[in-house]
Design a protein that fits this description.
single chain; about 120 residues; alpha+beta; 2,3-Dihydroxybiphenyl 1,2-Dioxygenase, domain 1; eight-stranded mixed sheet; 2 helices; about 20% helix
């Protein structure tokens, strides 16, 4: 179950999906769901808890924390009103929609919804 405005997912940027899967499965016994050659999900006990996205360079700050929202448009407006900066407007992806923002301290986060 997804809870409104709670941390719901973490996304690692990696330069090599196969190496990332090898490391994390060996170090922590993590299991994965392959979605494409550039994205895999990290299986949790009851739901998918994160993923690896392959990029040319690792995202500054490393891990992307992803919150869940029942209403993305409302959450985006709240972020802006609170002083955050929208980095990527709402976009669709398989499984839902999301946007990225930067908080006043420079941290990049995302908010997603399955509706």
């Amino acid at each position: 179950m997804h809870i409104h405005h709670e941390v719901d997912y973490i996304e690692f940027s990696v330069t090599n999906i196969a190496e990332a899967k090898h490391f994390y499965s060996k170090a922590f016994d993590w299991e994965f769901t392959d979605y494409s050659s550039t994205y895999v999900g990290i299986k949790g006990r009851d739901k998918e808890i994160g993923g690896f996205t392959q990029t040319a360079e690792v995202r500054e700050g490393g891990v992307l924390v992803v919150l869940y929202s029942h209403n993305l448009e409302e959450s985006a407006m709240s972020v802006q009103k609170a002083g955050g900066t929208i980095l990527r407007e709402i976009f669709s992806f398989p499984g839902g929609r999301r946007f990225h923002f930067r908080d006043p301290f420079g941290n990049e986060l995302a908010v997603w919804s399955d509706t």
